């Protein structure tokens, strides 16, 4: 544990999933933190997020498991269906054998609930200062510390800085300077409905992915089964930028007009969709410069096809805190070590997410091959996700996370 008294804080730019988890993880090591968030409040968008076994191990390290259990839903499986024929391609169970293999659960949670659990834990720490309406505009590494100036003209001084400011990171432009992210041409529409508004025959306690040509639809229960989350993705070159704005239902329905009747009917259940233009970047290995480093989407933004961007940000935060503790007051050494320990893992997830996007959206022979190969998968045998969900050498070892009961849904 590092002596906290009268030390200058680490400045954490951005108070999303990555930034708040970083603040919490650093506070557990006795390090004071100042979080600077541009928005007027700490807030996540109204949508679900999947939590892999790898992130539940991090919740255990951070003492958050039971609070996550209170809000999450725990599906009994993942089913892939062909959205043209409506046939099931593969049905993978999340059961005792899954738990034996990965020794942690797979859950889904409303983003607001996830952020609130982390935020509440941050608020209980007297080492964390949280500031909203602070959009960091310029940053400077003085050699012995860092200075952040906000758009409104406020100045913050710290011992070091972690840029957790997401896909469009200002901190990244200072230390990497590689311009805009890569626009994938894939668009996501998201919506959350009360479970009572979701058709009874699809009120199933599992994640269902309808894989189509250049499209897919995912739905799963959220918040202990009280809500249903829908994500639709399709290819469109109509947009260059955009997030959290309203989508165009006419475009959506035209992209799905050749899909099977159940998919078209399910899409009609939503009146207002929120839209995101999906972007990533190619992996890099240098996201640290002096006393400034990056974390989460600012460091390694990825497409959502493995449902791991937020999970990776949380792993980053735990790894960073471990390295700062291990390297004492030498932030420059700690940041380099953290980056060196993380870049290949996060690069693999960035690149594999692109591959999974191709698999979900396959057409022609690729689609036929996908259906044939995936039909052979089982979580225990043919398809092994240990590289993603298993223990990582750079993260603290966690032997077992408790297994929650699967979420039950009222018929
Ligand atoms: C459709 C979709 C589905 C997804 N599904 C999953 C999933 O199932 N599982 C998963 O793990 N991940 C998923 N992700 C990815 C996940 O949402 C991101 O990886 C995660 O939100 C990254 O967190 P972050 O804290 O790094 O960045 P962000 O969440 O983008 O947070 C950045 C924060 O920084 C603030 N900020 C920005 N600039 C400044 C500035 N100059 N000064 C101060 N503050 C600033 C922002 O306001 C924001 O609060 C999905 C993404 C999409 C688009």
Question: What features would you describe in this structure?
Answer:
The protein has 411 residues and is an alpha/beta fold. The protein is built from twelve helices and 19 strands. An eight-stranded mixed sheet has the order 5-4-13-14-15-12-17-16, with helices on one face. α1 (17-28) links the parallel β1 and β2. α1 (17-28) packs parallel to α9, α2 (53-62) packs across α9 (309-326) and α9 (309-326) runs antiparallel to α10 (331-360). The chain is globular and about 65 Å long. The termini are far apart.
Instruction: Tell me, rounded to a whole number, the average pLDDT.
Output: 93
Assign a percent range to the helix content.
25-40%
Q: Which spans have pLDDT < 50 for at least 5 consecutive residues?
A: none
Secondary-structure-derived class = alpha/beta
- The strand count comes to 19
Overall form: globular
Radius of gyration: 21 Å
Specify the number of helices.
12
Q: How many angstroms separate the termini? A: 51 Å
Short description:
The protein is an alpha/beta fold and 411 residues long. It has twelve helices and 19 strands.
Features:
411 residues, 8-stranded mixed sheet, binds flavin-adenine dinucleotide
How are the SSEs ordered, and which strands pair?
Blueprint: E1 10-13, H1 17-28, E2 33-36, E3 48-51, H2 53-62, H3 65-71, E4 77-82, E5 88-93, H4 96-102, E6 107-110, H5 111-123, E7 128-131, E8 136-141, E9 146-150, E10 155-158, E11 160-163, H6 170-175, E12 182-194, E13 207-212, E14 215-222, E15 227-235, E16 243-246, H7 249-255, H8 261-267, E17 274-280, E18 288-289, E19 292-294, H9 309-326, H10 331-360, H11 364-375, H12 386-389
Parallel strand pairs: 1-2, 1-11, 2-7, 4-13, 11-19
Antiparallel strand pairs: 3-6, 4-5, 8-9, 9-10, 12-15, 12-17, 13-14, 14-15, 16-17, 18-19
The chain binds flavin-adenine dinucleotide.
């Amino acid at each position: 544990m590092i002596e906290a008294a009268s030390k200058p804080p680490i400045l954490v730019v951005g108070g999303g999933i990555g930034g708040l988890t970083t603040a919490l993880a650093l506070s557990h090591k006795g390090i004071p933190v100042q979080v600077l968030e541009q928005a007027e409040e700490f807030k996540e968008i109204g949508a679900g997020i999947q939590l892999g076994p790898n992130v539940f191990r991090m919740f255990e390290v951070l003492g958050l498991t039971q609070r996550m259990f209170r809000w999450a839903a725990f599906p009994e499986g993942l089913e892939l269906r062909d959205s043209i024929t409506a046939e099931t391609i593969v049905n993978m169970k999340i059961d005792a054998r899954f738990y034996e293999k990965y020794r942690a659960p797979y859950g889904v949670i409303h983003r607001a609930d996830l952020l609130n659990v982390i935020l509440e834990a941050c608020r209980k720490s007297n080492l964390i200062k949280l500031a909203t309406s602070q959009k960091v505009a310029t940053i400077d590494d003085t050699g012995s510390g860092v200075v952040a100036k906000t758009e409104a003209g406020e100045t913050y001084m710290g011992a070091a800085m972690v840029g957790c400011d997401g896909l469009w990171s200002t901190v990244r432009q200072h230390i990497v300077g590689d311009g805009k992210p890569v626009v994938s041409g894939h668009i996501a529409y998201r919506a959350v409905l009360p479970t009572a508004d979701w058709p009874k025959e699809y009120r199933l306690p599992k994640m269902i992915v309808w894989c189509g040509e250049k499209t897919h639809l995912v739905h799963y229960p959220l918040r202990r089964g009280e809500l249903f989350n829908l994500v639709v993705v399709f290819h469109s070159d109509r947009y260059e930028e955009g997030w959290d704005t309203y989508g165009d239902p006419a475009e959506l329905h035209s992209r799905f007009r050749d899909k099977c009747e159940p998919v078209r009917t399910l899409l009609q259940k939503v009146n207002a969709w929120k839209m995101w233009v999906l972007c990533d970047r190619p992996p890099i290995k240098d996201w640290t410069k002096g006393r400034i480093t990056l974390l989460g989407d600012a460091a390694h933004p990825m497409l959502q096809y493995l449902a791991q961007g937020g999970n990776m940000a949380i792993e980053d935060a735990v790894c960073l805190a471990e390295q700062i503790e291990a390297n004492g007051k030498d932030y420059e050494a700690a940041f380099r070590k953290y980056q060196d320990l993380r870049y290949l893992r996060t690069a693999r997830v960035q690149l594999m997410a692109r591959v999974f996007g191709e698999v979900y959206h396959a057409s022609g022979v690729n689609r036929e091959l996908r259906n044939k190969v995936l039909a052979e998968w089982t979580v225990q045998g043919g398809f092994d996700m240990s590289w993603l969900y298993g223990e990582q050498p750079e993260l603290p070892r966690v032997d077992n996370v408790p297994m929650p009961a699967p979420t039950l849904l009222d018929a």
